[in-house]
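Lab meeting prep.
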Amino acid sequence: MAALGSKLAQLQSKACEATRLAAKHGCAYHKTLMEKNKHYVVDPPTIQKCQELSKQLFYTRLASLPGRYESFWKELDGAKLLWKNRSNLKVENAGVAALFGIELYAWLCVGEVVGRGFTLTGYHV
């Protein structure tokens, strides 16, 4: 229990240090960031303009769905062709496919843990 208290004190100390660093350099960082990206800022930055841009982004993404849908089916057809000709498949290609599948599964597991609030059992302590 003492080790846990020690770790907590270390964590608290590091959090305080990070807060001080952010307070000291945060304004300068924000100013530099905004200066570097000022060509992306709409003038004047009003609520109405933000809402308009939000709608533009939503409908632009919605308009891109047919192209994405078509690309998905092309990729699927390519995967079906590979599966049909699997006897000609090289070991390297099968290894890459297996690693890709393992990576997808690992991301799924990480997503599940994040969704449960970074707990492994689902119970919060």
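Slide two material, second protein:
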Amino acid sequence: MFGTFRSPNAVYFGAGQRAMLGRVVSSFGRRTLICTDERLAADPMFRAMVEDIGAAGVDVSVFSRTIPDLPLGCIDEALAHARSAKPDSIVAIGGGSCLDLAKTTALIHTLGGRPQDYYGEFKVAKAVLPVIAVPTTSGTGSEVTPVAVLSDPDKTLKVGISDPRLIPAVAICDPELTLSCPASLTAVAGADALTHGIESFTAIRRNEGADLPLERVFVGKNIISDHHALESIRLISGALVGAVEDGSRLDLRSQLMFGAMLAGHAFANAGNAAAHALQYPVGALTHTAHGVGVAALMPYVMRFNLPARRDEYAQVAAAMGVPPKGDAKAMAEASIDAVTALFAAVGIPRTLAELGFQEGRIGWAAEQAMTAARLVQNNPMPLDVESMKTILQAAYHGDPRLLS
């Protein structure tokens, strides 16, 4: 039995929990910087949270120019804001890009340098400015993870900074903040979260000695991440369709947000795999959202990994409520069908062709996907360029038989 669990110092979950934000922020000092986006900055709930922080005796500065996919220029702007505000903490209110901006700003403001200096794993030498993460979507799980993903114009694909010191100090997860999330974003974010649960639950299992967590940010499949992953799959699969159809249902919004947070905990420790590696070049070529790409790829990656994870996929099927179907092989096959049907029900494209991906770029995309070493090495089945091409061919044509 082996397990690893890295997490914020505190996680507060539940409807109305945003009311504690002022007291939490004030515990870190008298000045804070909030990272958010223009849409949220105009929201009455956001303004109420800013007032609450101010009422707790904290001087508040707001940076509301967060841009999706987090280009380096956006980070530069936020850093300039931080230099002027001299914050004791940074509050992130928003989706994944807002949370990743807060993490990266806290890092550079504390240690100096450029984001490029920290690409990869274990590059953060000491503790950074505390981040209080307040997600407004149920998807990335960034409120509990050691990762910040950003866009570098000198890089073809998105890049990541991964270090346990990037995990927020506090996460406040209030599902009432997701009630205004549009149906399309709810679907994409929820699909992304489900892939986190599935990929972390079926990741490679390593036996590399007692110092494994000190050598890898993402250690692979383990008993603690498995617990979070399987429960996240149950929660997300049970709530996603209903939350997309009726976003006013707080019970479903709560279930979805809790599932996404648990999935974040799972992949923060175990890591993701092939679907995420392949999405990077697919997203770069099609300019489609990360969640759409990983969800479109997931059934095909599951089919590819089936020989190595039959028992785990059978457990995924059971967690998704699939009735017993005899042996583990039948249940494992049923899990792929269940994931495919769920994603179709919330509007996820079934093929890469529907995303605008061109068949002629399969070779390039396969080669680029192999450069995401931490994801490639985390896959339960060995990966090379040819196997990546096969997965992409199957996903482009919508033909899982190519993976048999």
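Talking points for slide two:
The CA atoms of residues 23 and 56 lie 6 Å apart.
The radius of gyration is 20 Å.
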